[in-house]
Design brief:
By secondary structure, this protein is mainly α. The protein has a domain at about 1-130. The protein is built from 27 helices and 6 strands. Strands 1-2 form a two-stranded antiparallel sheet. Helix 9 (about 260-305) runs antiparallel to helix 17. The protein is elongated and about 100 Å long. This is Sterol o-acyltransferase.
């Protein structure tokens, strides 16, 4: 057992041996329990009930156990037997404990003199877990006029000056063009990007329509016809590779200019990131759901054994045993008096019914939360409380060099175990200590002070389990621990908790429980929401502001006009050729291309993303941070494109750490490698050449990141920012010259 005291272990073992023998995974569950876990027969596992070496893991929901039709995985490579002899007076007794799948015992002597024996699992493979947090909360983009922080910026007048200068620049260019050619604007660039426009629009529509195959894919995983790991995930990657190959082939076949081919490939890559996140999240949730269903089967079998030998004869006897187990668990949790109420008894019967506790149920959420609320005048029962680790994980995520599970506000299994035991015992002891109300009030006040101190120290508010199980407080150790594991898996199937305080501007949303989200309407909404990371629900505003949408639409066309003028009159006429001097071309293109880059950034992240966010009422508008203050390229990569960074953080960086057990530095290298290859792919399609110039420019950032950590450079932020801007400004003309001339 995870932590065995000689006194408690001797009584519990004979009752549980048969059940453990029938379910080898329970033995693994025992050996995997952390040292500070509770002392019952089986404890909630730190990871899963199968060895980490059996199946691949994910940063979102972990691994999946095999389906019922597949053979059980081997859970042990050795068996360790411990013999304990106890002499008391004239009598003596001997107990033998078999630790399946253990290679040794780790002894520890407690403060009370009790000896705690913790089996060491035979598997030597370390379980590396990383929880990538991608939080969504109401935020405005930096340049949005409704951003209160930016509106108080002392340098906001310079932004106005920037646009005034651009307007004068466009007027001057147009006047010069009209004076020399008789045309206000040349139409050369317009002819270029309007070529084959209808075919491009139809092709993009076909691309969007093909993405809806994700919904039946998720439903196949939901029905359990295939497991996501490894069968469905293989199909997912093959389909994504085929889709990308067809898009590239079609773009080359149509011989589109660089504008059309670049747009089509970039849009395809964005959609591929969207569908990858959708299938990954729902596939992992499907595996979690079926793992939960198998544990529910174990729980029902254990309830039948404990609450009546005849209970296994049929469904009627099983329901009777289940009802008896629920009553025992409710009494153990201190809800006996509350359940005596007639109205409460009716709701309890409905909520705790066996069919209601199976699988996923949205209606069960509301009933469970109401029934498990503490009686009037008492604090909410801490037995249903776990600590939120999102702040710690978010700090860790913010420090990652480049690359965006489950995700925001996810429960910690280890702390779930410890708090579930310690706080339950504390609360039950206080409830049974006496009947004097004054003493109870003092105990509650003391508990509140301790709880407040703990919250202040941790920096995070605890949260109640949103879908509690009625048997989580059952006196039988196996029953309660299996029920607690089901609680944790249910939390994994629920939408993320709100990341901010309730606001009158936000829609109050009930938690969404998988698979209620598997609809075509939900998928279409996800395609429109300006994010590349899928969640069951997002923070939403109550209203759509038509004038705001109009403002962003006009800003898009106005900014595009400036881009058109710069491209038509200041970039295309200076297209490099082998005969043109290198330095001359570089100096002519550096400033216009830098301005175009800034304007394209503004159109994408400030205009288009905000417009789609407003249309979908998406409340999180923080699509970028202050990347212009970056002191190194790793800071720039994290801040300039948050949607892509969030995707890379969750589905590439954290996934490689959790699934392959890589170190952070190696995961960062693979993330940069993937990003560099994708950038080079886009340039190869746009230019029709494979030169690896952009790939090299991306990969050279790695040693530059190391250099930026030198104390002298790290302290001198102005120097770092200057180096960043020089590198960025030089990169665009150098790449232009390289791909067009060489």
């Amino acid at each position: 057992m995870a932590t065995n005291e000689t006194s408690s272990g001797a009584r519990a073992l004979p009752v549980e041996e048969d059940f453990v023998a029938k379910h080898p995974k329970i033995a693994q569950l025992m050996t995997d329990t952390p040292e500070d876990a509770i002392s019952s027969a089986v404890s909630t596992p730190a990871s899963e009930m199968v060895p980490s070496s059996e199946l691949p893991s994910t940063p979102t929901n972990g691994r999946a156990t095999p389906s019922d039709s597949e053979p059980e995985p081997s859970v042990a490579t050795s068996t360790l037997t411990t013999t304990i002899s106890n002499s008391h007076g004239t009598g003596s007794s001997t107990f033998e404990f078999k630790h399946i799948g253990a290679k040794a015992l780790s002894p520890r002597v407690g403060k009370d003199g009790a000896i705690h024996l913790k089996p060491v699992a035979a598997s030597t493979r370390s379980r590396k877990k990383m929880r990538a947090v991608v939080s969504f909360k109401p935020r405005n983009s930096h340049f949005d006029r409704f951003n209160e922080t930016s509106s108080r910026d002392q340098f906001r007048g310079f932004f106005t000056l920037f646009w005034v200068c651009l307007a004068l620049f466009v007027l001057n260019t147009s006047y010069t063009s009209f004076a020399s050619t008789g045309q206000v604007l040349s139409l050369t660039f317009a002819t270029l990007f309007s070529r084959d426009a209808w075919i491009l629009a139809i092709s993009d529509g076909v691309l969007i329509a093909s993405l809806f195959i994700c919904v039946p894919f998720a439903k196949v995983c939901r029905r359990g016809w295939v497991r996501y790991w490894p069968t469905a995930v293989t199909f997912q990657h093959l389909w994504q590779a085929t889709l990308l190959g067809l898009v590239i082939k079609w773009a080359r076949y149509r011989e589109w200019p660089w504008v059309q081919s670049g747009f089509f490939v970039l849009h395809t890559l964005a959609m591929m990131m969207k569908i990858h996140s959708y299938m990954n999240v729902n596939g992992n949730m499907a595996d979690t759901y079926h793992r939960m269903r198998r544990i529910e089967g174990m729980l029902e079998e254990r309830v039948a054994e404990v609450e009546g030998a005849e209970a296994g004869r049929g469904d009627e006897q099983l329901h009777a045993a289940w009802g008896k187990a629920v009553r025992l668990a409710r009494n153990a949790a201190g809800f006996g008096d509350k359940d005596a109420d007639k109205a409460t008894a009716h709701s309890l019967a409905e909520w705790s019914a066996l069919h209601k506790q199976r699988g996923s149920s949205s209606s069960r959420l509301h009933l469970g939360q109401a029934l498990n609320a503490a009686p009037q005048g008492e604090e909410p029962s801490p037995k249903l409380t776990v600590k939120d680790e999102s702040s710690q994980a978010r700090d860790q995520a913010d420090s990652l060099p480049d690359p965006p599970g489950r995700k925001d506000k996810q429960l910690s299994r280890e702390e779930h175990i410890q708090l579930h035991k310690n706080m339950t015992d504390k609360t039950n002891a206080e409830r049974k200590a006496g009947t004097d109300k004054d003493n109870e009030a003092k105990a509650d006040s003391s508990l509140n002070r301790r709880r407040s101190t703990s919250r202040a120290a941790s920096g995070a508010e605890p949260h109640q389990i949103r879908d509690p199980h009625p048997l989580s407080s059952h006196p039988d150790g196996l029953i309660s621990d299996l029920a607690r594991e089901i609680e944790v898996l249910r939390e994994d199937l629920l939408s993320s908790r709100p990341s901010s305080e309730p606001s009158p501007e936000l829609i109050r949303q009930d938690p969404v429980m998988w698979p209620a989200n598997l609809t075509y309407a939900n998928f279409w909404d996800y395609l429109l929401v300006p994010t590349l990371v899928y969640e069951l629900s997002y923070p939403r505003l109550k209203t759509i502001r038509p004038l705001y949408v109009l403002e962003k639409t006009l800003a898009t066309f106005g900014t595009f006009l400036v881009i058109y003028v710069i491209t038509e009159h200041w970039i295309m006429p200076f297209t490099p050729t082998p005969e043109t001097p290198f330095l001359r071309t570089f100096l002519q293109l550096a400033v216009p291309m830098m301005i175009n880059y800034l304007l394209i950034f503004y159109i994408m992240f400030e205009c288009i993303c905000n417009a789609f966010a407003e249309l979908t009422r998406f409340a999180d508008r923080e699509f970028y941070l202050d990347w212009w203050n970056a002191t190194s390229m790793d800071v720039f990569s994290r801040k300039w494109n948050k949607p892509v960074h969030s995707f890379l953080l969750r589905h590439v960086y954290a996934s490689t750490i959790a699934a392959w057990g890589l170190s952070k530095s190696m995961a960062m290298f693979l993330t940069f490698l993937l990003s560099s290859l994708v950038h080079e792919l886009v340039m190869a399609i746009v230019s029709g050449k494979i030169r690896f110039y952009l790939f090299a420019a991306q990969m050279v950032q790695l040693p530059l990141i190391i250099i930026s950590q030198i104390p002298f450079i790290k302290r001198n932020e102005t120097l770092g920012n200057m180096i960043f801007w020089i590198g960025l400004m030089a990169g665009f003309p150098l790449l232009n010259i390289g791909y067009l001339v060489y």
